[in-house]
Design brief:
- By secondary structure, the protein is α/β, with parallel strands linked by helices.
- The chain folds into two domains: 3-36 and 107-244, Rossmann fold (3-Layer(aba) Sandwich), CATH 3.40.50; 37-102, Orthogonal Bundle (DNA polymerase, domain 1).
- It is 48% helix and 10% strand.
- The protein contains twelve helices and six strands.
- A six-stranded parallel beta sheet has the order 3-2-1-4-5-6.
- The longest helix is centred in the middle third of the chain and has 17 residues, at 86-102.
């Protein structure tokens, strides 16, 4: 029995919808489609240091998936004991975004194109679910991954009230896909996104594409964790087979 089959049967044990087939993949962007997290963390770190707020660069990996406002409020509550005002959030996020753009375009994540192609060939909808509102990278999707994400299948920081780890982004993704949680998977690279996917009820895949330990994603609720995107892409047919032939008596 494959690792994928074991994970699927463990997730769906006791499920009444045991014969459901996979209809949609809800996919994060930063750290999944693009190797962009090192740029985001550097930009956040530079902005926070300019404010004199004590922090480390790596801590921003743990905030991946949050809205910009939520990340800024973490910093403000630590330094000043309060949330940032709307004006402060706007100014500081714009500053962080400018620093990110200065570093140049992030590379496409190795293995991501193959992952998307295999999902499309299997007839699985692809829905973007990102905590980012960074237009500089969102605008690249059609160029870098042509035909993979239709405009009406995108959830971003611009159209959610609660960012990850709240399940709202993935629940909205399910609505856009027109399917139930047992008919979709979440593909994530960081604990907060994994937790959001887990809370949505979807089978949740964690992929290690940065410094976050696999154990942290398992603890956040990942049903299965892969050590890299190329490894996930190579084993995706096994996962699709397990999901579409699940037996959970």
């Amino acid at each position: 029995m494959t690792e994928e089959k074991i994970a699927v049967e463990r997730h769906f044990v006791g499920s009444e919808a045991q014969h459901a087939t996979l209809k949609a993949a809800l996919i994060d962007m930063d750290g999944v489609l693009y190797d962009s997290m090192k740029g985001h963390t550097a930009a956040w770190y530079r902005m926070a240091c300019e404010l004199g707020i004590e922090c480390t660069r790596d801590e921003f990996y743990a905030y991946e998936g949050m809205t910009g406002a939520a990340t800024i409020n973490i910093l403000f509550n630590r330094a000043y004991g309060r949330d940032a005002t709307a004006e402060e959030v706007k100014e500081l996020y714009a500053r962080k975004a400018a620093y990110f753009i200065e570093m140049g375009e992030p590379e496409m994540m190795p293995g991501a194109a193959l992952m998307l192609e295999r999902l499309r060939n299997a007839g699985v909808q692809r829905v973007l679910v990102t905590g980012s509102g960074q237009h500089s990278i969102l605008d690249r999707l059609d160029r870098d991954y042509p035909g993979m994400f239709s405009p009406d299948k995108r959830v971003t920081a611009l159209n959610v009230t609660h960012g990850k780890p709240d399940p709202e982004p993935y629940l909205k993704g399910l609505q856009l896909a027109g399917c139930r949680a047992d008919e979709a998977i979440v593909i994530e690279n960081a604990p907060l996104g994994v937790l959001a996917g887990h809370r949505s009820g979807c089978f949740t895949v964690g992929i290690t594409t940065g410094p976050i330990p696999e154990a942290d994603m398992t603890a956040a609720g990942a049903d299965i964790v892969y050590p890299s995107m190329p490894e996930f892409a190579s084993r995706l047919p096994l996962l699709l087979n397990a999901l579409n032939n699940r037996q959970t008596k």
